[in-house]
Amino acid sequence: MNDKRPIVLIIAIALIGIILLTKLFLIQVADDSFLKKAERNAVQRLVDHPYRGLVYDRTGKILVYNNPLFDLMIIPKEFSVQDTARFCEIFNISKEHLIEGYTAARKYSSVKPSPLIKQISTTEFAKIQDFLIDYPGLFVTTRSVRSYPQPVAASALGYIGEISARQLERDTVKYYRQGDFVGLAGLEGFYEKELRGVKGVKYKMVNVRGVDKGSFKNGEYDTASVAGHNLTSTIDLDLQQYGEKLMGGKVGSVVAIEPKTGEILAMISAPTYDPNILTGSQFGANYMNLNRDESKPLFNRPIMATYPPGSIFKIVQSLIGLQMGVLTPNTTYACNRSLVACHNHPSPVNLFGAIRNSCNPYYHQAYRAMINREVSSNTFKDTQIGLDQWRDKVLAFGLGGPLGLDMNNEKGGSIPTSNYYDRVYGQGRWRYSTIYSLSIGQGEMMVTPLQMANLAAIFANKGYYYTPHLIKAIDGDATRINPEYRTKKEVGVDAHHFDLIQDAMAEAIYGTAARAAISDIQIAGKTGTAQNPHGEDHSVFIAFAPKDDPKIAIAVYVENAGWGGRAAASTASLMIEKYIRGEITRPALEEYVLAGKFM
Amino acid sequence: MRQDDLYINKIDWISILIYVALVTIGWFNIYAAVFDEQNAKSIFDLSINSGQQLVRIGAALIMILLIMVADYRLFDNLSLILYGIFILLLAVTPFIGKEVNGQILTVGFGSIRIQPAEFAKFATALALAKFMERPSFDLSQVKYQLQALAIIMVPVILIMLQPDTGTAMVYFAFFIMLYREGMPQRYYVLALTLIAVSLLALGIENNLYLAFAILAVITILILLGKKSFTRIISFIVIGILMIGYTYSLDYAVSKLPQHQQNRIMVLFNPDLDPLGVGWNVTQSKIAIGSGGFLGKGYLEGTQTKFDFVPEQHTDFIFCTLGEEFGWVGSFVVILLFCTLLIRLVIMAERQKTRFSRVYGYCVVSILLFHFAINIAMTIGLFPVVGIPLPFFSYGGSSLWAFTILLFIFIKLDSHRVQMLGRMK
């Protein structure tokens, strides 16, 4: 009766075996997603953050380093202490702190580490180091923050901060992860790739509670981190520091360049801030405060503020005129104040006199001769052709566009094109009388303090410059910087034309900027005044020294300080003395500059 | 001595060898499940589960010896007494047992504790064999059907009181034996249909589709068979009852305790609650699935070593095997189990007495149920039911109960030629 039933049972048993094995085959062999899930479960990928590169000044002094901070971590389950009083004494905490910290840690996890004491300094750490072994369940983790031994050059050095969502998106090679720190401004931003180093990875295994269970496959897949490259800056720490001291309480910029190399010796943006406040846990709050500050300390004036060049531009006009042959040293014009306002001085003047006296009508007439070359009988057309040809010559001086220094967000200022006037006035509806302000560096023309300093370097070099830059070597190797910074740029004016200019500038010191003169260091300089429609004019001065063998070229802007001879020339003179002599012999002048408040 | 020679020659060494293989593999897997690289201990260390289990295996060997040297008639004679003893023990367990997580499963003193529900399995098997041995016993009659049902239901009800639904469910495995012994086939067809309809009702959101499907099947069945009035009427009634059942099932499930509801729902959607109820199944599948074809190697399973699967040394021991030995290892163990089960069916069929045959089928039923449900649950084919994998899982009671269950049959089988019984 039941003969078939044993067979049915045997088939059922075999069928169950086949079903189980099929399902097992599907999840074990046919589907590898479980393997990945298992690794996600048990293997934790830990990034070994590399040591960020250091930044030195040109003399080898440290500008930026990594300051180790220690956090004392506690694993509640392993922690035990007999003598609480002694423990608190060694670790310099109150009993309440210990109990609170322990309770909080316990609440988070009894087997995972939590911080007990945060941000222990190196000296404090040295004190507790030897006692750590007596207390199970305690260990120390190290992290580092950027630190600045001298609180200077904040805007040049920049800062690091957490990577933004947009930067993460742009990071197509997927180097960065959420929460990583990157250089956001200044050198930290520009040299991010050099400074950051190479991340290392450690794979470790964890159990279900997240407890460390040793390295994965004996560290077969682990890689060590590689420290970032150290940068040698062109900045002279002492000069930078002195400049910031002089600019204290003022608004403006100082840029000092070594003319023969284009190396930036000092770059001061005033007002400034202590770069140490934009590190560590206070970054967010302090950044917000700086951002809200009406004096705009985060605004990097040397490369981002633009002003009309003013009288200083007359030197460029003279050089272009000489090179074009429109001007000779003997070219004379009357100081015709019906053309443009001027101040009292002998008239007529030759070129030397024009520079020395900063004669406006002279340049009004000289510039007309440069622009209206009578290549076209149509005066409008003639002006347009003349302007564009002239503009090309101006651009060769590093004006009208960013110079390309090693910082992001450099502004280029502007030198107007004929298209610009066409747009404003209409084609064929403007001529020399429309644009004559350009002759004396006013009107639709803007330059940055950096470009002005570069002009000083060009005058010092008699016709060439190196693109100004802030980093001269990577890991001590000067050939690893951008070759662009080691390429000589000619401005297209013969060197002999500069002799007259240099003499006039040296002479001019005694006219408009007598305070700037130093008895044994011959300074060649030119004052300027950047017109400020909102208040007192900005005081501008450029100079180089010593005249016969220039070691420093400098541009100083002091906002709302009136004409250039006062604040700017004095500051420049002190900077030059500081750099060349290493000390200040005129305490009275220093006193005068420090006391000046022009905000 | 003469008698000993006689039955020792008849001992079924195939099933004993498979038993030894399974217990040994199980023991190594228990060691792997508790293995901690950073605090590695010997497999024999009594402070860890593998050492403890070895002691229990030793005890099991003593039990085997005792069973093998005992008089084979003893089991027949003692069957009802044993049944009575364990039923009594089950009845008093809720009062004298120790409560763990809301369940009272064990009785005993100090560290020596046993789980009566495990041992009641072989006692119930013996009682069923004893009852069904009677010449008049005929499963085609409702009276005898109810008798068999009563023997099964007494321990089931008592175990439900502990409460231990998983172990109670195991007793329904005896219906496999009853099938062989002539229980009418229609019950099984009905039960399997109900299970299928239940799964569909729980798995399909809209019961309306299912209702149409049932109507369609019923219509086809009516059209295909002979068109007698009673047959048509009974099919229509069954159809209506089933549709009613699908609708009442959802309601019934919502009345179940939350943890049982969750176990059922997780079967249909393991991602429902991956960190809660789904955790066991999800982690278990990850452990087994990550084993691949050949496995990660002994003591190399990360999921196993680092405790990602709860209950891994007991109910989820198959994970260890799946992870560290892969599909090949799973294949070997499943092959061993299937071979043992088929071998036991063949052995049951060669019995000369109904007592031995019924008992043999009881052994097949219990082992098959445990084996199939346990592994199915670890790979997400069946809701999580807390029952051990025979011979593998850590724990004294289950190992001893399965050992006794199996070896009583091996003993009876070795004496099969001496027994004279009336076969039906």
TrEMBL record, chain A:
GO terms for cellular component: plasma membrane. It comes from the Bacteria. Residues 49-210 form the Penicillin-binding protein dimerisation domain. Residues 252-572 form the Penicillin-binding protein transpeptidase domain. It holds the Pfam family Transpeptidase. The chain crosses the membrane at residues 7-27. GO terms for molecular function: penicillin binding; peptidoglycan L,D-transpeptidase activity; serine-type D-Ala-D-Ala carboxypeptidase activity. It is found in: Cell membrane; Membrane. The keyword Cell membrane applies. Keywords: Carboxypeptidase, Cell inner membrane, Cell membrane, Cell shape, Cell wall biogenesis/degradation, Hydrolase, Membrane, Peptidoglycan synthesis, Protease, Transmembrane, Transmembrane helix. It is a single-pass membrane protein. One of its GO terms (biological process) is proteolysis. NCBIfam families: pbp2_mrdA. This is Penicillin-binding protein 2. It comes from Belliella pelovolcani.
TrEMBL record, chain B:
One of its GO terms (biological process) is regulation of cell shape. It is found in: Membrane. It is a multi-pass membrane protein. GO terms for molecular function: glycosyltransferase activity; lipid-linked peptidoglycan transporter activity. PROSITE patterns: FTSW_RODA_SPOVE. One of its GO terms (cellular component) is cell division site. The chain crosses the membrane at residues 12-34, 54-73, 80-97, 148-174, 186-202, 208-225, 232-249, 325-346, 358-385, 391-410. It holds the Pfam family FTSW_RODA_SPOVE. InterPro entries: Cell_cycle_FtsW-rel_CS, FtsW/RodA, RodA/MrdB. Keywords: Cell membrane, Cell shape, Cell wall biogenesis/degradation, Glycosyltransferase, Membrane, Peptidoglycan synthesis, Transferase, Transmembrane, Transmembrane helix. This is Cell wall polymerase. It comes from Belliella pelovolcani.
